[in-house]
Structures are given as C-alpha cells and as structure tokens.
Amino acid sequence: DTAVSQTPKYLVTQMGNDKSIKCEQNLGHDTMYWYKQDSKKFLKIMFSYNNKELIINETVPNRFSPKSPDKAHLNLHINSLELGDSAVYFCASSPILGGLAGVPYEQYFGPGTRLTVT
Amino acid sequence: QKEVEQNSGPLSVPEGAIASLNCTYSDRGSQSFFWYRQYSGKSPELIMFIYSNGDKEDGRFTAQLNKASQYVSLLIRDSQPSDSATYLCAVNIIVGSQGNLIFGKGTKLSVKP
Hints:
The structure holds two protein chains of two kinds.
Chain A: E1 4-7, E2 10-13, E3 19-25, E4 31-37, E5 43-50, E6 53-57, E7 64-70, E8 73-78, E9 87-94, E10 108-109, E11 113-117
Chain B: E1 4-6, E2 11-14, E3 19-25, E4 33-38, E5 45-50, E6 54-58, E7 61-66, E8 71-76, E9 85-95, E10 98-103, E11 107-112
Parallel strand pairs in B: 2-11
Antiparallel strand pairs in B: 1-3, 3-8, 4-5, 4-9, 6-7, 7-8, 9-10, 9-11
C-alpha cells in the first residue's frame, strides 16, 4: 500500500494551459509539502501545509495554488503554465511540523510528477 | 539566505571501499540533519538523521555531526554498486516556530565493481 501517492506520474502540456497534480498520503501525518526539483536536481520547497493550514509559501509565483481538502490530501494547481515550470514535482508528508528544536522528523516523499511544458 | 552546501561530485569509489560524503550548512541554529538517497528517476528516500554531535551508526552507514564546524557527513562502509545514487543532505531550518527542510544540491556517488 503506497504511503504517499501522486497523480499523474507524467504530465506533458502546452504553455498557457492550467493543470493540477494530486497528492494523497495514508500515513496519518499532519504535515504535507510540495517540492520542485529542477533539471539540475536541486530540490526546493514550495509549500507546506499543517492540518489543512498553509504554513510555508516560499517565493513561488501566484500561478501556483495549493489546496488541501483534508489533511490526507494536498493538491497543486498551476495556471498559465510556462516553459520554466518544467520539472519534477514531489509531494511529501511528515508526522509533525518540524518546528521543534532538536526533534528530528522525517519526510516521506511521493514518486514525483514529471511536468513537461512545451 | 540559509544554505546547505555539498560537493556535486561525481564521487567515484571502488566496490568495498568507504565512501565519504560531506555537507556544510550556514544556519548555526539548525538542530536536525538528514541524509536522503535518490536513485535516478526516483524520489528521495531517508537514510539517516542525526541531531547530536558525534557519530550515529546504522548498518553500513555512519552519520557524523559537528555543530561547531557546521559540518555533517555520511560514511558508507563496504560500498556496493547498489549504493550508486545521489545523496542529499537536508537541514532543518527553524524560522519563528516553523521548521523547514533545506536541501543541498546533492553529491552523486558512483561505486565501481
């Protein structure tokens, strides 16, 4: 049984389109994240949600809008896709929000969604 | 700007040797440190975490932390070809009451049979 799942696995679309990526975790975790990994393999956080509430929104364009209908799901909607949005997008979850000093917490990653914008 | 630095490699070691992967971080207040392994085309997978100075061993893997030097490393003993992957160092950065993982760009390890 997959712990963190994402759909679709591959997404090819044209510039200007709107697309969504879905993420679900069955680990009972409170916190979920979206990461972007570019062609140079640099993994950078975009958003984090704790119990459906947005916690972190890094400098991500407004075209990206996360939505969390419940704490097991965190979807990513992207408007007006651009060439530079091409990347692998990873969803992740962790049991707690990592704000407690000295308390290690692990993040579990989904399989990733490879987005190609042409 | 909080940063995590890693040598991008590739680091090439022969099978059976010790692979040493290094990471430095800029935020002196960081408390928790993680090593993830990422095979090509796959998602990052947690190998180890460490939050106390010194060494932490798990099987063939040893994580080492030196907070004074802001340095964390991962040693892989008896390296196997299956260890060939990119290793990502991640540091828990706390801003206010919120924590966030900052990843390094990864070191690509190649273990030659």
